[in-house]
Design a protein that fits this description.
This protein is α/β, with parallel strands linked by helices and about 325 residues long. The chain has 14 helices and 7 strands. Helix 2 runs antiparallel to helix 6 and helix 4 packs across helix 11. It is globular and about 65 Å long. It starts with 9 loop residues before the first helix and ends with a helix. Bound molecules: guanosine-5'-diphosphate and magnesium ion. The site of magnesium ion (MG) has 6 residues, from helix 4 and helix 5. The site of guanosine-5'-diphosphate (GDP) has 16 residues, from helix 4 and helix 5.
Length: about 325
Amino acid sequence: VTIRARSVDVPDLVGGARNGDPRAVARLISLVEADHPELRAVMAALVGAPAGPPAAVIGLTGPPGVGKSTTTSALISAFRALDRRIGVLAVAPASPFSGGALLGDRIRMQDHALDPGVFIRSMATRGHLGGLARSTPQALRVLDAAGCDLVLIETVGVGQSEVEVAGLADTTVVLLAPGMGDGVQAAKAGVLEVGDVFVVNKADRDGAAATARDLRQMISLTHRPELWRPPVLQAVASTGQGIGELVEALEQHRIWMTSNGELTRRRLRRSAAEIEALTLAAVQRRIGSLDPGSRLNDLAEAVLEGRLDPYRAADTLLTALGPAH
Ligand SMILES: Nc1nc2c(ncn2[C@@H]2O[C@H](COP(=O)(O)OP(=O)(O)O)[C@@H](O)[C@H]2O)c(=O)[nH]1
Ligand SMILES: [Mg+2]
């Protein structure tokens, strides 16, 4: 897919982002979203010498309607009170459903829309191989350049993509609410393993304490003493109740990760996933551009006619691709 776009002045945009210009930041994240050809130049320009230490990355995940955007908005207020510069990414897999969800998120975060210390962006990731693994770190690099101390990533949608995005954060907050996402469901969705902090939101409703108790019990079953024990908090995000405790838990987790090298390990994993995604995408593109697919076609015929086994065919194709540039 070729993306036709307005011409891109890379040095101008990167300079703008470094000066904290919200329009430059927005435009650069649009390039990330579109997998624009100029991204290569953008990423090269962003290498080295960020303004300060890299932003802390906090992922928020959980079923639709649980209160992720409301919690994000409350966290923005709490961290702004500490004078932190904040980036917010609402990440959704591109789908007919996610558009509406992102719209709702914007409304819930609009209290912060005029604050120059807050960048809020939604980003749809394309369904292709490694879309999330590629775009999230790239967007983070843009927000880092813009001087963010902290980036909150809200994932929209359910299932694998949420777990995947969670793996790209330093700290993952899993939100549940009484009656809608009980512990068993959480375990099934695989969020139990990715949660560093659990929040039972909508604690103004019946059953919050029971949900929290179930979760704690389930965490105990798999907990090993040398590991971080994920706290289970209760909150009413819409009133801000419990948000102070959440901020405290996030800071504690960060201190724990920093003290034992886990933070570096997670960031290495993120970089590795990004490089892998870019490599796979490049291979896929180059297969597509091989003398219009005829090499692949020849190999397919050979396999179909039983002259070649598929592994040998794949080896031949990889050899035909040659070095990347
Ligand atoms: N009763 C109650 N409603 C809440 C709470 N937090 C959020 N909500 C509401 O739940 C709905 C969904 O919230 P939203 O933040 O958009 O959820 P998201 O889909 O996870 O981002 C909205 O109408 C919120 O006002 C809470 O703690 N208690
Ligand atoms: Mg939301």
